[in-house]
Queue: 3 jobs
Job 1
Amino acid sequence: METRTRRDFLKTGAAGAAAASVLGFPHVARAQTKLTFGLWDHWVPGANDVLKGIVTDWGKGNRVDITIDFITSIGNKLQLTGAAESRAGAGHDIIAFSTWDGTFYKDKLEPMSDVAEALIKKYGPFNENATYLSKQDGRWVTLPSPIGSHTYPHETRMDYFKQHAGVDVQDIFPADVKKRDKKKVDGWDWKAFLAVAKKVNAAGFPIGASIAENTDSNDWLGPLFASHGSFPMDNKGNITIDSPATLEVIEYLRELTQHMPKDIYGWDDASNNRWLISGKGSTIFNPPSAWAVAKRDQPAVAAQVWHHDVPRGPKGRYRGSLPFTWGIWKFSKEKKVAKDLLLFLSDRETQWKLITASQGYDFPQIMSFQDHPVWKEIGPPVGGQYNYPVRGDEKLIVAGWPAKPEFGAQVYSKWLLPTMVGKVTSGGTKPQDAVKWAAGELEGYKRG
Amino acid sequence: MRLGPNGTVLDAAAPARALPARARWRRRLRSRAAIGLLMCLPLVALIGGLVAYPFFYSIYLSMLNKRETAFIGLDNFRFLMTRDVFWQVVQTSFVFTGLAVFWKAVLGFTLALVIHTVPTGGQRIWRGLSLIPWVMPLALSSLGWWWIYEPTHSALNWLLVLIGISPKPWLSDPYWAKVAVILVNVWYGTPFFMITYLAGLKSIPAELFESSAIDGASGLQRLRHITLPMLKSIIAITMLFSTIVTLATFDIVRVLTRGGPRQSTHMFGTYAFELGIASGDVPLGAAVSLFMFPILAVSAFFILRGIRRSTV
Amino acid sequence: MIRTKRARRALTLLVCYGVIAGFVVFFLFPPYWMAITSFKTNQEIESLEGIPLIIQHGATLRHYRDLFAKTDFLLYFMNSVLVTVPVVFFSMVISVLAAYALSRLGFAGAGVIGTGVFLVYLVPDSLLFIPLFKIIGALGLLNSKWSLVLVYPTLIVPFCTWLLIGYFASIPKELDEAALVDGAGHLQMLVLIFLPVAVPGLIAATIFAFTVSWSGFLYPLAFIFSSGEQVLTTGTVTSLIKGDVYHWGGLMAGALLASLPPVLLYVFLMDYYISGLTAGSTKG
């Protein structure tokens, strides 16, 4: 009977998840169900509470007793929790993963295809990057989650750019996609970026982006290499890093880093935020978290911050993306209830509430949800976050793409790209030797 | 009911035929060996179950493949030998341990000597203040150091600029990051050296110094001919113990650099954590951490020899 | 002659105090910087103006208030207490029993056990955490603070046993012979005669046990994940850091408060602490 109810719901797909669940279980016959949910600990103040409220209300309406654990991603806690639970065969019913992590456990996770396909039918597709990370061997092993998912656009001090480099990012990337001038947008490429970097540095306000062991580094270097056609591995398992394109980007970075602060090799995920907030930096690649903190502590800085598209390369324009996903363990005894909850959380109305609660930080993976008004309205400056969702020709990727997940995940988690680049730009290694080193590392990733 | 000599209950109503056996049992219990073993049992169980067994289990783990499904002998060790990063870890571990222990010993000795020289009344307060770094939980004080080194707001760089030295890329340059982690280790460990050396200094009979003073020996001569020889064994033992603890360093590196930049500050412990826990390759992580053992065993050999010598 | 001698003594003292002052500044700068930061407003922490070493724009207790009102700090504190109390208790019981046996009952296996205790130093926590991760997992204790109660004694018992052996060995043998003649058992003797005499040693060992348990970082980092089970060290280092924004004021406030119990204990019991610390080296 349970499965029939599920199928019925998925077929109609219309009556909210809550209703379906209630319909499936007559009140009298149903005992209180217990569900545990391991979630990413959100940094935006209040976001956790809103989510908790939404989930608890749903639980009350459906006679489900839900426990939420907020697990921080600092120190790999969230990652370690997933690893430990898969090993122990016990733990939360639903657990959140970031980027590649869900792919490790594809055989230990309950397939999500029914939920994902129902959502696609109702709201249209997930973005390609989310699909790539969640859909393994033809089935959805995890469900893309909006909570904590973010991308890495430019977060720019528009006054510095205008004053010291003569570039008006508000003009190139206005808060209305229809007003974009294609020529100006196409002109924003890595060459133009280098020219700006030189000028703002000369004026004493360098650009800042880390080349170190952290996700921020992956999320601007991955796209930079990709936009020149350089990828560590292809999707068949061939090592493709030793290419002219790779050397070209390394040479480019050798020049660019001359105009960046020397500390970038020791930065963590928070350093670029502080860099911008302190007023020293003119641009960083980051979700709007630096802006949000500046709004609280240094409002004058925040009012000058504009989010916009990253530079284009000869082979396209790529923006870094760090999506979160949800997985349901096969060992869970409440798979159906868990799926009902995730369906409800993926509902447009719920997701919009969550996006609002995160002040626009959470980036929806279902493409049609990008029309949320928050990014048009939030400010100051009003419209500063308009370009946080992808409005133009950017393609969202995760560093390591398009390799097979078991290898791509290692490119990401072992910091292959920042290490390779840093060896040259900070360590003085010859570019060719650094590329050889990276190829050797990639060979090591194949160890079973 | 009455109490026997050992607090055991002597029950008059016990069946007669059981008496000889019980008496024998009691005698056995009262024998020193039995009681001694019984009292050591919790200790033996603890160390056997949670130190010895995991150690051997670790050797077994290090010989499994990544998924822990097949026995692959020494392949993990062979694989590590081919990795640049691993050799970097070996190098960092030795450099870190060598330099940190050396500086802790030198600074600890200097401090002990100067505290020993000032009037006894004030020694207590200086000794007390100096021990604070050793008392604070290291993970938490490392967090404070992290903030001292933080690139944009670095208090240390601010001070350097103040005295006319250019700011240093703490934590972002492999060289300076090593300096940074060693500095924290020296900060944390110097008090321990100071306190053991100070205890050693206090145990040197004052007459030795007095007679040498009459002979007209200078301060440096006294240091060389009396103090150092008298403290030789304490200095050696403290340094070797510190070698063990320093080689096993985890907290400082994990909190300050996480092994970066470019894996240049990883030690055996943090690299094993990165591989075994964070990347889920338990066997490879076990293999890395096992490399510590032979190094520690050699140190132990010298410690034991040192202790034996000094007690003879 | 006397004057030059006195002058030389004065000069020596001056140099000594100079060196000591340098060391004290070095030792106390980090806690000072942490304290200063914890009382600054966010604006002042993030600003690059002025002198960072002093509070220029008014001190605030906000970070401390937020620590208790808005974070799980108190929960971590309770967890640390819940772990530390049984760890100290069990460690002391195990150490006292073993130290008595090893120092007084010269039985056949004593030497082997003594050497075994020493060899534990050769397998530090950074070597054992990987197999222990698997063992704790098999016991179903992963992500539980009680796993720490199991593993922390291994870090404490060897040193405490060693320390107490030293104290017990200094108790004159005539005392226990007299007691044995009176018909006392070994347990009675341990409790009635040894423990009272060895009080300073027991205090030193207890402080050591407390400090190790309170400061432990690697094991909770490897074995515990969810916020509710976190202890102070890992809770402060991981959970108080939010996303890619660090609230340095709050972090430093948390780190300082979490460091306080061992520091306070030490301030009040410094002499025991030091006697424990140096027991091994002076007897060696």
Job 2
Amino acid sequence: MKLLQERVKDRPAGENLIIRTAVRLMIPFIQLYGLYVIVHGHYSPGGGFQGGVVLGASFILLALAYDLRTSLRFMSERVNAVLGNVGVLIYTGTGLLCALLGGLFLDYSALDRILPLGPVEWRSLGIFVVEVGVGIAVMSIMTSLFWDLGSGGEMDEGL
Amino acid sequence: MKAFAFLATLATGVALLYGTKDFAAWGDAASPASSHVSPVYIERAVEQTHVPNLVTAILGDYRGYDTMFETVVIYCAGLAVVCVLRRQKS
Amino acid sequence: MIWQLDLLILALVVVCAVAAINTRDLLGAVVIFGVYSFLMCLLWAEMGAVDVAFTEATVGAGISSVLFIAAIFRTTRRSKD
């Protein structure tokens, strides 16, 4: 690691044509798979948490293969912070909306009063909305964890 | 000191292995853990929520508070790391 | 549940745990920890808990290994004891 740290000073870490090309080809498929895992959580293993981690891993992979600034170009720090808050707010906001519409907190069948689809369908849809919120929150938090730990908080030179 | 630590670990391991003797068998439908609320979920989850994947139905609907605070815990962890480590370049 | 496969995976899990503790090189310990996580993932998938196995594969073997490597990159690679 000492040697690696010495070498980083001379040139950017991980400058390798093969790795970069492979990562550039892989990242769209990884993100598509993450979205699939979130959306298809009703029918197959997966859900918000796992899909969010896969989506966050795609940005981490970008930061590992290129450098931290490249991954900041695709997902800026401000957008990332906003997304982390929005994800948690979607979850708690859905629960609060259910309570405001006359049901219990997180009882999605109360959302039937907005659009009458039937309480059972709304419970299914409510789970989907909540999973999307979890996915967004987990994605941005995993990415920001890696950014902060990998660059020592300076968001400049990183792993 | 190292021998003492090894002995303590060994004793704990033996005690734990002895304890596993009383566990219910794998997939035992009559065990206390799977005879309390599990049958209700298995019978009614699909007709109540229209979600074929039982795990998602339980995590997202029946145990919604659990998942919500799990998300909040992860959010707090991310917030703590950003607050402790993030600094502007001087 | 196939008990022979279970026994093999559990034995490998114990070997990985002991190896991860005894390794002086922290980067090697992180890699062994990733192997440990993936073996636990296999064990859970084999027992039918696919959701847990998925979480373990993504978080345990994927993200936490990368975070450990980032922490080692910022500190030191050698263990003191």
Job 3
Amino acid sequence: MTTTTPTVPTGTQRTGATPTRVGRVRRRLNSPVASLVSIVIAVVWTVPTFGLFVSSFRPEDEIKTTGWWTFFTNPQFTLENYQEVLFGRSASSGQLASYFINSLAITIPSVLFPLAFAALAAYALAWMNFRGRDWVYIAIFALQIVPLQMALVPLLRFFSAGVTVAGVQVLPAWDLVDEQKFAQVWFAHTCFALPLAVFLLHNFISQLPGDLMEAARVDGASHPKIFRTIVLPLITPALAAFGIFQFLWVWNDLLVALIFAGGNDETAPLTVRLAEMAGTRGNEWQRLTAGAFVSIVVPLIVFLSLQRYFVRGLLAGSVKG
Amino acid sequence: MAVFARPRQAFVIAGVLGLALSAAACGTGNDKGSSSNADSAECAAYDKYKGHDGKKVSIYSSIRDIEADRLDQSWEQFEECTGIDIDHEGSGEFEAQLPVRVDGGNAPDLAFIPQPGLLKRFADAGKLKPVGADTKAMAEQNYSPDWLKYSTVNGTLYGAPLGSNVKSFVWYSPKMFKEKGWTVPTTWDDLIKLSDTIAASGIKPWCAGIESGDATGWPATDWIEDVLLRTAGPEVYDQWTTHGIPFNDPKVAEALDRAGSILKNEKYVNGGFGGVKSLATTSFQEAGVPITTGKCALHRQASFYANQWPEGTKVGEDGDVFAFYFPAIDPAKGKPVLGGGEFVAAFNDRPEVQAVQTYLASGEYANSRAKIGDWVSANKQLDLANVANPIDKLSVQILQDQSTVFRFDGSDLMPAAVGAGTFWKGMVDWVNGKDTASVLQGIESSWK
Amino acid sequence: MEFDFAEEQPKFLMLMYGLIAFVAVVGGLLLLLDVVPAWFARRREAQLVAASASGAPLPRRRQREGFLALFFLLPTLLLLVVGLVVPAIRTTLLSFMDKDSDQWVGLQNYGWMFSDGSIVRVLVNTLVWVLLVPLVATTIGLLYAVMVDRARFEAVAKSLIFMPMAISFVGASIIWKFVYAYRGDEQEQIGLLNQIVVSLGGEPKQWLLESPLNTLLLIVIMVWIQAGFAMVVLSAAIKAIPADIVEAARLDGVTSWQMFWRITLPSIRPALIVVVVTITIATLKVFDIVRTSTNGNYDTSVIANEMYNQAFRYGENGQGSALAVVLFILVIPIVIYQIRNLRQQREG
């Protein structure tokens, strides 16, 4: 199969080299019906978020008594919701900026580690020959289903008590305080992300043209060298793609952060603060409207700025027919 | 607050598992608790808690946002005088997260547990430390045995109560009552008569809502408990909450039906929201709000509902809203007060933890916290003068009254699978039209 | 309290340590991988030259690769053992124990599952979710990807569908709760769905109360989130279809419909499988949506939500674990499919 499909770089170039002709060919596929359907989908997908967006600028009692669409006939505009979200009323919950930094400090390593480890593993599983590799791959794949809730207690015990085998302390407890607890969160997120990461990257790496690898090996390149010089550049876009998903996941996570970092402004991410914003008895939910938009901004920026790589990334990966 | 970064030392990258990097640092930068003013006059009250300078005590609770600020504020002076650093963390996921942390070997020093059932679970599992002698003496001095029995498991006291609330209240609008010439009812029959009068005037008298996110159903359980206390009396209530009688005992069924004569009566509910069916989807926070717009007249909810009124609503006997005591049904059974509260349980018995635990049970603490506002406690040392909010004042009066028969919220006493599970869900089904017998039967069969 | 940048310094320091650790670990590993097999490589080079001349196989290479592969896999395997394998085994064991996990109770927890009517309902709901979500989300994602492909506002159009992905499950559920919100018929509606119904002359409904419709409405939320994932991945796959194939088909005069079925679909099959499998597993594990929207009331609960309730809220570790084991079992068909797939790929 692999031999009949064009190699990755050529595929990319070809699409890039003849944009106008192909563009014309493809555009004809878009009938008016298709345009209409796609517009309908786009509208349905956007309206709920849009409603929330409008609501976030409306005063509390307006939100609770009238629909957001009445905003257009009876505009009552306020920035109070955002003011409360951004600057808060509660001293102990700290400044939003502080949580923002926590979120960044949690997210960046939690994206990098699984990416690197999964890429290495996926390469080994796809292109190295050793006994039982398919079973290792299937096992890793199957681990995706382990609900992370069930992993919380054992993992927490791993951090707080270390590992003891038959009465002998094999690994010590971590004993971290304050912002050092970020390390626990990185560790946990990395564990939980690996099965999906290996699955996605394996799919991608295994579809790289085999003759490319073969040629490199014939040239005497070792596996580490092939990985660094040939595979890594080719999969950078795929890494970007998975990076986005992992980023979104970690950025929006509440549970893992609460368990492994705690809920203080020393370490808690933005999501913890947003959850708190609903008030002790959940009565301040109008603030969630503004809160949701504050938290959505960063993921959207990341998506829009990486979209370019992203598309090219999967472009190369799916070449194989 | 410290402006300088705390000293960090000895950063170790342990090659464990390739990723495991652990940072060992000495938390010497204890910026709070300087002992400089520890000898001033106002610190005299804290003399007995001294000797733990620089120690840290962690507290975990479900209290967040402004109320968490008030907590921090309430023990500020204690921290300054004793040098103990109290590190409070509040989480909306408290009930689910506390067991995870405890099982994971990462328990907080102290936890404010609002469910005696959960406290019992930890005590039975041997995770809790019994209170020290000082705490015990303090708790027994300041709280009635009625309260302490909820944190006593097999004869051992595991913590003193902290904040409390009174649930047996019916909110109404004094202004509206005055205008229409209605009077506050003192018996159940009067209450029903009043409801009929209001219904006849074209207003649905009652509003209620039991939606509360993942705790949906609890406001209805409070209704049932309040009614059961009044129809069957506190002894039967105690049997019911401890499964001494089946959950579907005829007396319980009777209480449900009586509560249903209001809650499931299309003539009476749901003022401002629609029919009976709207109960399940109306959030409890919004449920009483129609009182302020005259679309509803009565709303049974706890004292803490005072914080839920729209901004600018005056709470008071002559204000926009106030509450009257849920009337007795059977004069022979009286009108016991249904309430809730949290207990300060310890997972650790270090001396400084016990010092904090003792302090939190003291009158000094109760008054210090009450002064900051919006707080009720059954602490006998609590001075009414320190309680500003009229509804809180009324609650404290009720709680401190020697003749008051107090009972804790039953759903918090039952095993969580029932009290926070099938009971809540059963109530949701019940208000949505399922019959009393099969709802109770379902809950009973889930209680093992 | 003023925002004090200096106070944030330790966090940045920690982040920096994290990044240093990352570079050290990954860089160290790559370096190690380079040094260790260096002498193998040198020897192999000689062998290779000889082998390629004679065409003879290299009998000992497999073994050495196994050793090398271990290094590639080491971090992943160690982390997975600590983070997922141990918990999975523990969960399985707990499922045969009582709620405090100190006594063996055999299959009692499993018996409970199938005798309790509400849990059977939970199992059925989960099946409905798992069948509908991947199907609908993938279909919508695919249709949209095909339709906006090379359209004028493609980037904007795709961002719109992708946006829900950037919202957390809890956030998304809140948004949709807003859409489904209900107010009595004498009142002004605040929920869009009821407003539409009312303006069409209907009665407002309590959408989340009406079983089984409510399960479908919750599924809509999941589809809303996941369609973006499907669209992005499939759109990329479509763009990768070699232009000459499309052109050739075009010249043969195929219709758009035929083009879709004969060219597009077969070409993106691998991507399609990835999408369906990923969404299926995500769906099996979903619990935030149900928890936030209905908390499993009105017959809407799914396994993951019930598992969370049992294990964390009710302290029923045995029953919660048993539900988790059912999740493991439900994924077996997908695993078998993957094995078959892998075999085909290897033979191909």
